[in-house]
Amino acid sequence: MGRPAKRYRFRPESGQVAGLEVGPRQTLCLVADLRGEVIGRVKADLDPEMGASDRLGAARRVLGAAVRGHANVRVLGIGTTGVVSGGKVVRDDRLPGWTGVDLPAEFGGGCPVLAGNDTKLATLAEHWRGVAHGVDDFVYVQTGRTVSLGLLLGGKLHAGHHGAAGEIGALRRAVGFVELVAGTVLAVDPRLVVIGGAADWLTAPLRAELTRLCLFPVRVETSTLGEDAVALGAVRLALSRVERELFSVADVAGAG
User: Fold this and answer.
1) What is the pLDDT of residues 58-105, one digit of tens each?
2) At the N or C end, where does the chain have fewer CB atoms within 10 A?
3) pLDDT tens digits, residue range 182-234?
């Protein structure tokens, strides 16, 4: 009795998402199917001193080349440096003219656009496909010319009141790199610390220093995602939007 049963099959090839990094030294776009498998990759090197319009133009060209031949890109995720709120770069001290850039406005038109801070999106990528897979409390440390942190606590990315949680680069001149990381470990008591953007030589000394300075030993690992970390996190951001739309209980109820 009642309505005949219906069968549904998930078709990951029926659409795509794109993840775009717009950074100081590179712009990189990954295209993935709806299962999250990467099916396209295009990259271009950038000059850290180039202006905002040139940087955006290069990113648009990379995005266009990456999505060419993919007719159903459903969501674009973007990761970039600075404090990002509502898709807009509200503060950035690294890239000329980057403060105030509205990324959804710059890249919108074809599909919904989501944007976030590069380190925070790299943190999502580590939890999804990296050494932090299955770990719900960890600190991601992005090293390089500046230092920034991503915090995943209780399985959720911690952004902070202004979206600026983890922007500790301003303190690097006042205190050392190990004091910075140890203070964070003492504050949030994570299960794991992941080091991104650094060679393997940093991991063992940092592990030893954290053992000396902190109340409990903490596991320290080097990221294995390399230069794809931010773009892969942007893919994860875009997929989350698609998954909410596809598998919403409200949508299923409404369809009945």
Assistant:
1) 999 999 999 999 989 999 999 999 999 999 999 998 899 999 999 999
2) N
3) 999 999 999 999 999 866 778 888 889 999 999 998 999 999 999 999 999 99
Asked whether residue 8 is domain-assigned, the answer is: no
Same domain, 53 and 36: yes
- Whether residues 24 and 111 share a domain: the answer is yes
CATH number at residue 172: 3.30.420.40
Q: Which of 50, 32, 115, 132 is nearest to 80 (CA)?
A: 115
pTM attached to this predicted model: 0.89
Range of the domain at 167: 133-224
